[in-house]
Task: inverse folding
């Protein structure tokens, strides 16, 4: 089982980022308005208000992730942990790929993936096919897929995270003939 991220860890990380913002504001203060220059307390109140709103926004974001089923809270060793669900992993993968412009492999080779996932792992098999399609793979046969894009890392990451690597073979091939 993967080590969970606790709620406290998320808040500690948030506070660290917020603290970094405070240091940056001290070193490189943002430009002030004339009103803030005359009344410095207004600036302090504005910053306090913005931090409060950011904290509320972060809390709402965590709530949204729970409600959508991307994360779940689980009690582990007397601590609450935040676990990323399979739906959450899928969303992370999609977001990661959207942010990264997928390009064809520089060496001109194609990735070929062959799998034989047993019936008892039907959900994993369906999720694999959906993910392969999303990554830009094309189906040659039901269990043979090929892709010209540089998505080998994402493919391997998905396979390992879903513990289906024993059912899959990956190859780099020179050419493919798709009808």
Result:
């Amino acid at each position: 089982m993967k080590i969970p991220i606790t709620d406290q860890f998320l808040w500690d990380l948030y506070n660290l980022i917020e603290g970094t913002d405070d240091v940056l504001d001290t070193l490189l203060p943002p430009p002030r308005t004339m009103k803030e220059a005359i009344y410095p307390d207004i600036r302090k109140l504005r910053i306090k208000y913005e931090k409060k709103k950011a904290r509320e926004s972060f809390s709402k974001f965590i709530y949204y992730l729970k409600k959508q089923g991307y994360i779940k809270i689980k009690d582990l060793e007397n601590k609450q942990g935040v676990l990323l669900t399979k739906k959450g992993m899928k969303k992370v993968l999609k977001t990661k790929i959207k942010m990264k412009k997928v390009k064809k492999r520089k060496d001109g080779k194609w990735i070929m993936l062959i799998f034989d996932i047993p019936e008892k792992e039907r959900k994993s098999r369906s999720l694999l096919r959906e993910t392969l399609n999303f990554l830009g793979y094309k189906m040659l046969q039901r269990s043979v897929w090929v892709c010209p894009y540089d998505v080998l890392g994402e493919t391997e990451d998905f396979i390992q995270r879903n513990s289906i690597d024993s059912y899959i073979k990956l190859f780099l091939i020179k050419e493919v003939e798709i009808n």
Summary: Strands lie at 5-6, 71-76, 79-84, 110-115, 138-141, 144-147, 168-173. The domain at 86-173 is CATH 3.30.70.240 (Alpha-Beta Plaits). The chain has six helices and seven strands.
